[in-house]
Specification:
The complex is a heterodimer of chains A (about 425) and B (about 250). Chain A has 10 helices and 20 strands. Chain A has a 10-stranded mixed beta sheet, covered by helices on one side. In chain A, strands 3, 4, 6, 7, 9, 11, 13, 15, 17 and 19 form a 10-stranded mixed beta sheet that branches. In chain A, β1 and β2 form a beta hairpin. In chain A, α2 packs antiparallel against α7, α5 packs across α6 and α8 crosses α9. Chain A has one domain. Helix content of chain A is about 25%, strand content about 40%. With about 425 residues, chain A is α/β, with parallel strands linked by helices. In chain B, the strands form 3 sheets. In chain B, strands 6-9-10-3-11-12 form a 6-stranded mixed beta sheet, with helices on both faces. Chain B has a 4-stranded antiparallel beta sheet with strand order 2-1-4-5, with helices on one face. In chain B, strands 7-8 form a two-stranded antiparallel ribbon. In chain B, β9, α6 and β10 form a beta-alpha-beta unit. Helices cover about 40% and strands about 30% of the residues of chain B. Chain B has 9 helices and 12 strands. Chain B is an alpha/beta fold and about 250 residues long. The chains are: A alpha/beta (about 425), B alpha/beta (about 250). Chains A and B meet through α8 and α9 of A and α2, β7 and α3 of B.
Amino acid sequence: MSFIEQIQADFDAYAAQAEKDSFYDIRANAYAHFQKNGIPTLKHEEWKYTNLRKIAEGNFAPSCLSTLDAKSLLDLGLLNKIKSNKIVFVNGCYREDLTEWIETDASLVMANIASARKTHQEVFMQHFGKYAQTEKEGLNALNTALLSDGAFIYVPEGKSLTYPILLTNISDATTEAVLQQPRNLIVLEKNSSATIIENYLSVGNQASFTNVVNEIFVDENGNLEHYKVQRAKGETYHNNYTQVYQNGHTNINQVTLTLDGLWVRNNLHFYMNGLNCNSLLYGLYITDGNSFVDNHSRVDHAKPNGFSDEKYKGILMDKSTAVFNGKIMVHADAQKTNAYQRNQNILLSNDATVNTKPQLEIFADDVKCTHGATIGQLDEEPMFYLRSRGISETEAKKLLLNAFADDIAVKIKIPELVQILEEEIARKL
Amino acid sequence: MLTINDLKASIEGKSILNGINLSIKPGEVHAIMGPNGAGKSTLSSVLAGRADYEVTGGKVDFMGKDLLELSPEDRAREGLFLAFQYPVEIPGVSSTNFLKTAINEKRKYHGLEPMEATDFLKFMRSKMEEMEMDKSLTSRSLNEGFSGGEKKRNEVFQMAMLEPKLCIMDETDSGLDIDALRLVSAGVNKLRDGERSFLVITHYQRLLDYIVPDFVHVLYKGRIVKSGDASLAKELEVKGYDWIKQEVEAAV
């Protein structure tokens, strides 16, 4: 069975048993969009450098039959040692046994979508499918139609999470190629705050395709720290679409760390729907082997007095490839916008490739916007300086690459994450 | 300690050093002077192992080792130190982390355990006191935003930390006002212990008022054309380099 036939069969099976409620309507509608557009090809402007052929031709199938000892795997990791609320999915399937909830306020919610859409139906349906559009985004449509499960995080008005939420997805491709489609919905009401870490890991030698959609809604005066750490390794294909919808006076700090994976596409969209929104988008990618990493972002300044700062940095080795495409859209209403965007890359090999495209589209006249991109090598002069002090070439590279990554590391408020970053740089050299 | 024998080097096919002979014993301070383009900075670069230069002939023995066979880092670990004419700013690398790495890499090379963090900090603090360095240095990125004088003082401070056997100072006086020159020279003089040797490369005599050399050599067209004691530097200050050039041309 081809992947497309598999998808058809899966949707038919779902439709046959589903209750025909509004949740079903959204998914059936998304499936119609998927049938119309399918998986994007290189002809699609937003997918020009990003080839999905291996996914379209793969034989991925959803499976909850993992026998993985996920607990032992997680216990080995540094992130799990952070005092945090934990929610875990393996191949997209909820692992209630690994959930840890340490908040004391009973009004805060962290649950899986399958149950939360019933227990918190009103809030859930108010937001589900409202932000991540499916009409033109084939992979969003696919996720919406056939989502595995995912996390529902809800912080009511005036409340704050005391501890971060660590949201871990593991793909277990030990016995067969797997498809997982995590779907997360994060709702922060007025004057609330939260820190959320999305953590992606993998095991097994078969291929896996992870197709994530995150919808994030932050209401007035809300504060969100959001980290995404991609370390799923091996033959992993990973597409992540995160749509942030923020109302006035909100602060969002988003850091995307792509540290492993064969094929990764991060789509990050911010929609600033109120006055004085503050959106920070930072990212670091380290690629080696034949890996491919694409960071696509779009920031919509829809209302006045918004501030956005975006900085993505890349370290490329071997025959790896990276794409950066950042679009800042300043709508006609969005006067007094300040928007900054930079993409900087260091190539450590002659065979590595970067395609970068910083973009500004400005329809307001009183704004301050800058953008820029650089692609270069490690400078020889600092290298020689360090070596002339007795530091080996490898250690000198490590110091200089950590210095390069430092701009991003300083945006991370969780020390364990910074440590992971430094370890990954050291490991890859 | 250092014996340079008929050293020849070129850059991009252009011959710069045309047969240098020089011998430095422990504790000695040698100055190399010469007009612009004589090959002064090339000599320091070749000794430190900068890759841009091609050694086309000759030998350099550094304490029984063939210096030219060693990588730049191994030269440093064997006890060679080059104080740069233009120290490099490296944002994001803290001075403390840099020095700790350098010291521990050297220790590893000599089969020693890395220094404990607390011992290192104690050591660094004592050296900072000795060299009268500002406390803010430890928290700053390496040379980032330093003034010309601060950079040169930091070179001398690194020298104090790494305890080399031979220090090559490449035009350390360039870009320094008289106060900074005094401070830097005072630092260097503290490190003169009768064992450590110095090769001071300079265009002007004024640095040698503060760091008094045992020997002065004049480099011209890639060769040492005249050697003498400290009084040679004074003579050059008065008479300039033209008379030496004329002497050399006349001899040809």
